[in-house]
Write a structure and sequence with these properties.
Elements (H helix, E strand, L loop, with lengths): L1 E5 L10 H9 L2 E4 L17 E4 L5 H13 L4 E5 L10 H10 L3 E4 L4 H8 L13 E5 L12 H4 L5 E5 L5 H9 L8 E6 L7 E6 L3 H7 L6 E5 L28
Parallel strand pairs: 1-4, 1-5, 2-3, 2-4, 6-7
Antiparallel strand pairs: 7-10, 8-9, 8-10
Length: about 250
């Protein structure tokens, strides 16, 4: 069987207990290159065969999976964060379906969650934003026309931008064509949860310059929105005047 496993955003202790157990028993691990903390590979047993998928094509990855399946061995496909976001797992799953090879998906912690923790932030604040847009800037990989950053920016919602730090000037320009202003809070989180984690607080207007000043050129998320500011409404959930299924609210 093939196991797709989310490695977590970086810190090795953020992998799930099941994910760690699968790594310890795998006959073969195919991991997503430098995006995966190498400490996780230390969980592998001595005779485990390890491949770096950054050096492989999809076809080469599938050959390894098929060979291990034919030999009745277990393969772990180790992805960064959670593979459901920008993990390119669907094409692997479709190929395994076509071959009749069983697989399962073990979730991990996405780097956008790690970034929020690094910033001590909550993406959804009452009266500020109840929507999180997870997206990327179009580059060598295109995006659907209606999902261009300039189109999404009109909503002014909390935005988490993956795989775009190398295009930060274009990101800044696109954001300013939407509902964000020069003064809208923003941040860049480099390698969230890794030992070398770095956070940069800035505004949309200073996003590109701040990123360059910090020397960040890859492996970073851009987050944007007023959730990074200080003002927000109190949550109704814990408001003493708010009645819930479990608690009767006191009169105002």
């Amino acid at each position: 069987m093939v196991h797709f496993v989310g490695a977590g955003p970086g810190a090795p202790d953020l992998i799930t207990q099941r994910g760690a157990a699968l790594l310890q028993t795998a006959d073969c691990i195919i991991y997503a290159g430098s995006l995966v903390n190498p400490a996780l590979l230390g969980l592998a047993k001595a005779d485990c065969t390890i491949y770096n998928s950054a050096e492989m094509t999809l076809e080469q990855v599938l050959v390894v999976m098929r060979e291990n399946e034919a030999a009745h061995k277990t393969t772990v496909r180790l992805h960064t964060g959670d593979p459901c976001l920008y993990g390119a797992i669907r094409e692997q799953m479709d190929a395994l379906d076509a071959d009749g090879i069983p697989y399962e998906d073990t979730p991990g912690v996405s780097s956008f969650c790690g970034a929020a923790a690094a910033l001590n932030a909550e993406y959804t604040l009452p009266g500020v934003s109840q929507t999180v847009i997870i997206t990327r800037m179009e580059g060598r990989t295109p995006v659907p026309e209606g999902e261009r950053l300039t189109s999404l920016a009109v909503h002014g919602a909390t935005m988490v931008i993956f795989l775009s730090i190398g295009l930060v000037d274009k990101v800044q320009t696109a954001l300013l064509q939407g509902a964000y202003t020069e003064a809208t809070p923003a941040a860049v989180v480099y390698k969230a949860t890794w030992p070398e984690q770095k956070t940069v607080h800035c505004t949309v207007g200073t996003l590109a310059a701040s990123t360059r000043a910090a020397g960040i050129t890859k492996t970073a998320l851009i987050v944007v929105g007023d959730f990074l500011a200080a003002q927000y409404d109190r949550s109704k959930l814990y408001d003493p005047t708010f009645t819930t299924e479990y608690r009767k609210g006191a009169p105002q």
